[in-house]
Design a protein that fits this description.
The complex is a heterodimer of chains A (479) and B (444). Among the domains of chain A are: 66 residues, no CATH class; 222 residues, MetI-like fold, CATH 1.10.3720. Helices cover 65% and strands 4% of the residues of chain A. Chain A contains 20 helices and 6 strands. In chain A, the strands form 3 sheets. In chain A, strands 1-2 form a two-stranded antiparallel ribbon. A two-stranded antiparallel sheet of chain A has the order 3-4. A two-stranded antiparallel sheet of chain A has the order 5-6. Chain A is globular. Chain B has 444 residues and is an alpha/beta fold. Chain B has 2 domains: 252 residues, Rossmann fold (3-Layer(aba) Sandwich), CATH 3.40.50.300; 93 residues, no CATH class. In chain B, 41% of the residues lie in helices and 16% in strands. In chain B, the strands form 2 sheets. Chain B has an 8-stranded mixed sheet with strand order 6-7-8-3-9-10-12-11, with helices on both faces. A 4-stranded antiparallel sheet of chain B has the order 2-1-4-5, covered by helices on one side. In chain B, helix 4 runs parallel beside helix 6 and helix 5 crosses helix 6. Chain B starts with a helix and ends with a helix. Classes of the chains: A mainly alpha (479), B alpha/beta (444). Chains A and B meet through helix 16 and helix 17 of A and helix 3, strand 6, helix 4 and helix 5 of B.
Chain lengths: 479, 444
């Protein structure tokens, strides 16, 4: 079966010799990506816009704008245009909705379609991995296979993964999921009009979105409340009801997911990089490097996290840093600085342990450089521990961000944020408008639980012998 | 002498040029204390050389510094003093590209095949890594070389894409050997390469190592604690104790007629497979002293069964002499152990210490013997010092009174026989009886 030459063939050639599985996979992938090409190009355009915006003097702003316009013209399958729900009743039937269905049904179909698409993409990616394993990988077995197999048998971890995916899809497809758009309903409500069926005049009439919002707020009283899964007086469907100011709660929740996830993932990514890098250096060189890092990290850890956050946000209140991404950039930086010691602490032990292995000495003995020793012989063993800790801490950051916004710090209005939604509805908790606080609150709980479950799953998969009663690693961390 | 003809051949061909020369090498581990530290003297002044193509065995009990010596020769530990010359170049001060070149010439095989191979890399990647580090030829030639190496050490080419997990201990050790061979080194340090393996596998690995030596003209430093293995594979043997090289010489000679008292004791610990053979084992008293505080004279003086006695006590009853030695050892142990916190508090309060008092120890040690009164006077004097928690004064007192040349002077490595054997013992001086003669009288 295996001959001398077989082991040396590069991947491209191995695929060429047995192209069928790869071709089928690539064809399915082309279809899946092709239907979303418009959205992908729009993201590219948006990123280019942000980059131009950050540069002094905005060079080439007009070029980027024309590019964005061209990208917008590329059709996208999973979008509001394909399954529209913002129509109105004209007395006999619905106009401008998907197949003339009611806005509620059209919206439900779109949400289902978005999730179906997202899970199809994930299934396709997983299928690619299994195809590679079966047809093209030179190794029949790697230690990672065991990890993957153990995770597949871990129901609690899979539950967590599904929650996390649901949350991520919510953030990624936020524009397509909302029953209305950010621009129209939340940011510039007085620039758009809504057409509705007036019972009084028995005809369709138009009104500014802002005015319609004023008439459909949820403020506790029976006639001043738009509950979840109901229509307001202007024929607009609200899956989660409306906020106090009449803006759609679901739209705010999905866009809030976007900002929460961005902050948590980027902050944890930076903190993780710092923590992992320092863990490698301190475990490899030990001695003074380790002592200095212990001192610095202890000093940082001694600070109460939430107080540092509040202080820093107040200090930077009126500076340009506070303006970037509605304050998210500043929050990300503060969280990175505050969180790296926790990460470093939690992986220092494994890093020191692996640095004592003989294969480190072996690598040194044939002259391997310190950076390569850290990268090839130490980091892979420590990375998984970092992943566990990061996934367990993400929830803590999401809670902290919500807490800050609840206090009126954090993300600035009008950008929606879960914590501010909770604060917004706080005084109506015991009234018919209970949904304003409860829905975002439940979602936070669910997401944090999901992240913890996912972290537990990875931990058990990576290290089946690990003590599952380890309280220090199992808590959500954060504030 | 049971020198077989093959062994004779090996020793004669081994007499090539000197490949490695070690002069008064010292490796101390500082404990990093801020105050004046008391380093662990793991290797404390070792000198020897290795000829091209030979196998030098390095034996000794755990903690004697043999692994540290090997790691210092590999530059995995920094030498505190002394020099190590590989082909005439002192390698203890190399840096930069010279150090990298040196790394090519000397390789190491580690004891534990579980820990010496990175489990996340395939066998091919593991064996190829040294070639990658030194930019050896082209990548495809490297892969070719790795496959050759796998065959050389008795594995198969298709093992290239397997992970270490999928191999047995012996096969893993073969992978480690292939990695050590990758850069075509001249000198390989084998740090207990078969200690972690099954006996049946040990023999195969040892034969492989011998075959490789013949094929590639390798020079080995074979670190081990299994004396039978050493005798099987080594041309010459060095015996280490407490960071010192007690004896070094041709394997057959050293095993058949050990010169040094420590070698004597070590060899007598080899189990005799024939139960009918009457043998007198020499069981050493106590444990080796702390390498932080080695004896001032001969490193073996605290446990040596044939220690030279001072002239005044030469005819003393051996039992009494032994008890005095034990008493000295007790004092040494006590001076090493820090008094516990409660002991200190008791002392401050003027109460009795929990530690066994001298009034208990002395009757226990000397009670059943007829001890000459002058000896007893000295013992009581020392006990008085110790009672006042001044063990060091007690030790000094006893050393002055009962100490001999073994306690006062560090012996030189003296030549024994005519085949270049060296032994670290005062008894090889013409002034004293040879250790072997004394052992004869001791075991009778």
């Amino acid at each position: 079966m295996s001959t001398t030459t077989e082991t040396e063939i590069p991947l491209r050639q191995r695929v060429a010799e047995n192209p069928q599985p790869a071709l089928i996979w690539a064809a399915v992938g082309a279809v899946l990506i092709g239907v979303e090409l418009g959205a992908i190009l729009q993201v590219v355009g948006a990123v280019a816009g942000v980059v131009v915006n950050l540069l002094p003097g905005d060079p080439g702003a007009s070029a980027v704008q024309s590019l964005q316009a061209a990208f917008d013209a590329v059709p996208t399958l999973v979008s509001r245009d394909v399954i529209p729900n913002q129509g109105y009743w004209n007395g006999t039937g619905y106009e401008n909705t998907f197949l003339g269905l009611s806005p509620a049904v059209a919206w439900v179909i779109r949400v289902a379609f978005v999730y179906a698409y997202a899970f199809a993409v994930l299934a396709w990616a997983w299928n690619g991995y299994t195809r590679f394993r079966r047809h093209y990988r030179r190794v029949d077995w790697t230690p990672r296979d065991d990890v993957v197999n153990r995770f597949r048998g871990h129901s609690w971890g899979k539950f967590g993964l599904i929650i996390v995916i649901t949350f991520v899809v919510m953030a990624v497809f936020a524009p397509a999921l909302g029953p209305t758009t950010m621009e129209r309903n939340i940011l510039q409500p007085y620039d758009y009009e809504v057409t509705y069926w007036s019972e009084d005049t028995q005809s369709t009439e138009t009104v500014l979105v802002g005015e319609a919002n004023l008439g459909s707020g949820s403020q506790g009283a029976g006639d001043e409340n738009v509950a979840p899964l109901t229509y307001d007086d202007y024929g607009r469907f609200h899956p989660f009801g409306t906020a106090t100011n009449g803006k759609d709660l679901f739209t705010q929740v999905v866009f809030g997911a976007r900002i929460s996830l961005t902050i948590a993932v980027v902050a944890m990514g930076i903190a993780g990089l710092i923590g992992l890098g320092l863990a490698m250096i301190t475990a490899y060189y030990k001695g003074l490097a380790d002592l200095a890092t212990v001192l610095v990290s202890d000093s940082v850890q001694a600070l109460p996290v939430i107080m540092v956050l509040i202080l820093m946000l107040v200090i930077f209140q009126n500076t340009w840093v506070r303006e970037l991404y509605d304050g998210a950039v500043l929050i990300i930086l503060i969280f990175s600085v505050v969180y790296w010691p926790f990460i470093w602490r939690s992986i220092r032990g494994p890093a020191l342990q692996v640095s004592e292995e003989d294969w480190i000495d072996a690598a040194k003995s044939f002259g391997q450089t310190p950076t390569q020793v850290m990268r090839k012989h130490m980091a892979p063993y420590v990375f998984s521990y970092m992943l566990i800790y990061a996934s367990l801490s993400l929830g803590g950051i999401i809670i902290s961000v919500a807490g800050l916004s609840y206090l009126g710090l954090g993300i600035t209005a009008p950008t929606p944020e879960w914590g501010r939604l909770i604060a917004n509805g706080q005084q109506y908790v015991a009234s018919p408008s209970w949904h304003i606080s409860l829905v975002p609150g439940l979602l936070i709980t669910l997401v944090v639980t999901g992240l913890n479950a996912f972290g537990d799953g990875i931990r058990d998969a990576i290290d089946p012998q690990a003590d599952t009663g380890d309280e220090a690693a199992a808590t959500g961390g954060g504030a | 002498m049971s020198t077989t003809s093959t062994e004779e051949e090996r020793t004669t061909t081994a007499r090539g040029e000197t490949i490695l020369e070690v002069n008064d090498l010292k490796t101390y581990y500082e404990d990093g204390g801020l105050l004046g530290s008391n380093p662990v003297k793991a290797v404390d002044g070792v000198s020897f050389d290795i000829q091209r193509g030979e196998t030098l065995g390095l034996v000794g009990e755990s903690g004697c510094g043999k692994s540290t010596l090997g790691r210092t020769l590999m530059r995995l530990e920094e030498a505190t003093a002394g020099e190590v010359k590989l082909n005439g170049t002192d390698i203890t001060t190399l840096s930069g590209s010279d150090l990298k070149q040196f790394r090519k010439d000397v390789q190491m095989v580690f004891q534990d095949p579980d820990s010496s191979l990175n489990e996340r890399m395939t066998v091919g990647e593991i064996v190829r890594e040294p070639l990658d580090v030194h930019d050896w030829k082209t990548p495809s030639e490297r892969r070719e070389r790795v496959r050759e190496l796998l065959e050389t050490v008795g594995l198969q080419e298709q093992h290239y894409y397997r992970y270490p997990h999928q191999f047995s201990g012996g096969q893993r050790q073969r992978i480690g050997i292939a990695r050590a061979l990758a850069l075509e080194p001249e000198f390989i340090i084998l740090d207990e390469p078969v200690s972690a393996l099954d006996v049946s596998v040990q023999a195969k690995i040892l034969n492989l190592l011998e075959d490789l030596q013949n094929e590639f003209g390798l020079t080995y430093l074979f670190i081990a604690h299994d004396l039978a293995v050493v005798r099987h594979i080594c041309d010459r043997v060095a015996v280490m104790y407490l960071g010192n090289m007690m004896e070094i010489g041709p394997a057959d000679e050293l095993f058949d007629e050990p010169a040094n008292p420590y070698t004597h004791a070590l060899l007598s610990s080899i189990p005799e497979p024939d139960p009918t053979v009457e043998r007198d084992r020499i069981t050493l008293r106590g444990t080796p002293p702390s390498p932080r505080d080695p004896p001032a004279g001969c490193p073996f003086s605290t446990r040596c069964p044939v220690k030279i006695r001072p002239a005044a006590y030469r005819d003393m009853d051996p039992d009494v002499w032994e008890r005095i030695e034990i008493f000295r050892e007790v004092l040494r142990e006590r001076s090493r152990a820090d008094p516990s916190l409660s002991d200190r508090v008791r002392k401050l309060l003027g109460r009795e210490s929990h530690r066994a008092g001298m009034d208990e120890i002395i009757p226990e040690l000397f009670g059943d013997l007829d001890v000459p009164s002058d000896v007893m006077t000295h013992v009581r004097e020392a006990a008085d010092y110790a009672e006042n928690d001044d063990e060091n004064a007690a030790r000094t007192y006893l050393r002055e009174e009962f100490g001999s040349v073994c306690d006062h002077e560090r012996p030189e490595q003296l030549a024994v026989g005519d085949r270049g054997r060296l032994s670290l013992c005062h008894r090889h001086d013409a002034e004293y009886e040879e250790p072997a003669t004394v052992f004869e009288t001791l075991v009778r």
